[in-house]
Every structure is written in C-alpha cells, then in structure tokens.
Specification:
The chain has one domain: Thiol Ester Dehydrase, Chain A. The chain is built from 4 helices and 5 strands. The chain is 23% helix and 33% strand. By secondary structure, it is α+β, with helices and mostly antiparallel strands.
Length: 142
C-alpha cells in the first residue's frame, strides 16, 4: 500500500478523519504516553481547573492529523518533517473531532508539500490549527 506521489497531488487537495472522543481514548492515550495529568483523567481535580472539567490531550488531536497524513493525504509512505500547532479550544469527552488537511504548497524539486492542518469539533469550532511539512512517498522503481 502506497500513498500519493507528488505528481498526483494538487494544491487544494483535502482529506479528513473524524472520531468521537471516548473515555477509553483518553485513558489509552494517557497509558501509552505516560501523560497522566489529572486534567485529563481525574474529574474531581478537573472540576477545579480553568476548563471546569476533564479535557482530552491536545496531542491526541495531533495524532488525528497524523492519521490523515499517514493514511489518506498523501498516505502510506509519507514522511512527517514538521508540524506546527496552536491549541485554540479544549476538547471534551464525547466531542466529535474532524482532523482536516489541505495542500497549500507543492515543491516538486524537493518532493515536499505544505499542508494546512486543523481539528474542528462538532460545533464547527477550530480547536487545533497548524501547518505541516510532508515528504510524500516517491514513485516506486520497477
């Protein structure tokens, strides 16, 4: 399985991935990464924070962007080189998040694409905004 090569990619191409955040997503992410911040896993603690309740890990949303890059656009074989992120709003359990990427620039000589990256909740609010630099898979030699 291989993703799109640079010759198959156009400025304006888009792809997305949507997922509803479950409690198990938050606990699994915390367990895998070791990020046991009580703002994510302890409701009693989180009630007294700025957010007034538990929130999902921001980097879990970044992982959804990675899913789009690695599985859809450009897809398998892509290499992540850079990702800039701005966390604009909290993501709560049961929020439905859509990670979207859009091709903004293409450099065929260096085999690089610049992507606009966003995570948007069910209310159409941008919760994560950023950009990424990706090297799409190269054409396989036969």
């Amino acid at each position: 399985m291989s993703g799109k090569t640079i010759s198959a990619i156009r400025v304006g191409d888009q792809a997305q991935f949507t997922k509803t955040i479950s409690e198990s997503d938050v606990y699994l992410y915390a367990g895998v990464t070791g990020d046991l911040n009580p703002a994510h896993i302890n409701e009693e603690y989180a009630k007294n924070t700025f957010f007034k309740g538990r929130i999902a890990h921001g980097m879990l949303m970044a992982g959804f962007i990675s899913t789009v890059v690695g599985m859809k656009l450009p897809g398998p074989g892509s290499i992540y080189l850079e990702q800039q992120l701005k966390f604009l709003a909290p993501v709560r359990l049961q929020d439905t998040i859509t990670a979207r990427v859009e091709v903004k620039e293409i450099d065929t000589t260096k085999n690089l694409i610049q992507l606009e990256t966003q995570c948007i909740n069910q209310d159409k609010k941008i919760v994560v905004d950023g950009k990424a630099l990706i090297s799409p898979p190269k054409k396989k030699r036969t």
